[in-house]
């Protein structure tokens, strides 16, 4: 799933390639990808892209060429969605429901440059909204403070009143925006904290370590991602991960074996030596209580 660094990089890519270009046509390839109906996507024809921004893990393409009637095309890429830039595209509209293409935006002319929103797999969760104000998108309106904008004291205040486990808190967009499953694993590993540590029970030194790790991991990932082509961002993300998706491999810090805990449709990875005092965490796949 694209998280803060990848979405920031995609926004940067659009700012470099799409700014000041007019929309020639918008094609819908997914039956249910569009979550709004007024205004219709045809309202974008003739509008000029004036910016691209990030709201948590939402990507926003901005059309402020008419100050009295701005429009924002927002997308949440979910688990398997992606943005792909193209210099040329088919002029034939896609057949809805076939293939990974969910939405295509032609810029300058039909068949010219532009971008596609695609989604792999059978579970179609990618969502697109066309609104006059980003706050009209429910997921944006509910976002907590942006992870990169929250200082140490703000993080301490947020943690103090929350009795959830750190792993759960870090990935909750209504609490802290932009972090998902992968980077929460990386942040906790860097901070040397257990995914199951209780947020409100952290000592001051732990809060210091968590704040430093959060900013270091995300800032490094943004710096590595921004400037990369959209096609290479996924591999760039994978190359920078130390524990996430590395089950069974040696921890690059201590050499211990990276372990995994699975639940529902997801899993997370951690290093016992670095994070849990050498004690493996219980895995629900073994029908044991998680402690």
Short account of what is shown:
InterPro entries: DNA_glyclase_Znf_dom_DNA_BS, FPG_cat, FPG_N, H2TH_FPG, Ribosomal_uS13-like_H2TH, Znf_DNA_glyclase/AP_lyase, Znf_FPG/IleRS. Keywords: DNA damage, DNA repair, DNA-binding, Glycosidase, Hydrolase, Lyase, Metal-binding, Multifunctional enzyme, Zinc, Zinc-finger. This protein is of the alpha+beta class.
Q: What do these coordinates show?
A:
The relative contact order is 0.14. The protein has helices at 4-17, 138-141, 152-160, 166-170, 181-191, 204-225, 233-239, 272-275, and strands spanning 23-28, 51-55, 58-63, 71-76, 81-86, 101-107, 114-119, 127-131, 259-263, 266-270. With 291 residues, the chain is an alpha+beta fold. Helix content is 26%, strand content 20%. Strand 9 and strand 10 form a beta hairpin. It folds into 2 domains: 4-141, N-terminal domain of MutM-like DNA repair proteins (Alpha-Beta Barrel), CATH 3.20.190; 147-286, Helicase, Ruva Protein, domain 3 (Orthogonal Bundle).
């Amino acid at each position: 799933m694209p998280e803060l660094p990848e979405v920031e990089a995609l926004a940067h890519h659009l700012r470099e390639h799409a700014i000041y270009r007019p929309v020639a046509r918008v094609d819908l390839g997914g039956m249910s990808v569009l979550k709004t109906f007024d205004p219709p996507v045809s309202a974008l024809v003739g509008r000029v892209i004036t910016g691209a921004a990030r709201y948590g893990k939402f990507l926003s393409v901005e059309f402020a060429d008419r100050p009295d009637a701005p429009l924002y095309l927002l997308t949440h890429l979910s688990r398997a969605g992606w943005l792909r830039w193209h210099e040329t595209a088919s002029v034939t509209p896609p057949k809805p429901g076939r293939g990974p293409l969910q939405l295509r935006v032609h810029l300058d002319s039909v068949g010219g440059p532009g971008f596609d929103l695609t989604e792999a797999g059978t579970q179609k969760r990618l969502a697109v909204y066309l609104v006059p104000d980003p706050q009209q998108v429910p997921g944006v309106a509910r976002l907590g403070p942006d992870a990169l904008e929250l200082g140490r004291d703000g993080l301490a205040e947020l943690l103090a009143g929350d009795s959830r486990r750190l792993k759960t808190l870090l990935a909750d967009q209504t609490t802290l925006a932009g972090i998902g499953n992968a980077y929460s694993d990386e942040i906790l590993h860097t901070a040397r904290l257990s995914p199951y540590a209780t947020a409100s029970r952290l000592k001051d030194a732990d809060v210091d370590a968590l704040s430093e790790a959060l900013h270091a991991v995300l800032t490094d990932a943004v710096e590595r991602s921004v400037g990369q082509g959209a096609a290479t961002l996924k591999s760039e993300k994978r190359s920078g991960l130390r524990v996430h998706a590395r089950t069974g491999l040696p921890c690059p810090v201590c050499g211990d074996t990276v372990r995994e805990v699975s639940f529902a449709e997801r899993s997370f990875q951690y290093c016992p030596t670095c994070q849990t005092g050498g004690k493996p965490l219980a895995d629900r796949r073994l029908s044991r209580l998680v402690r």
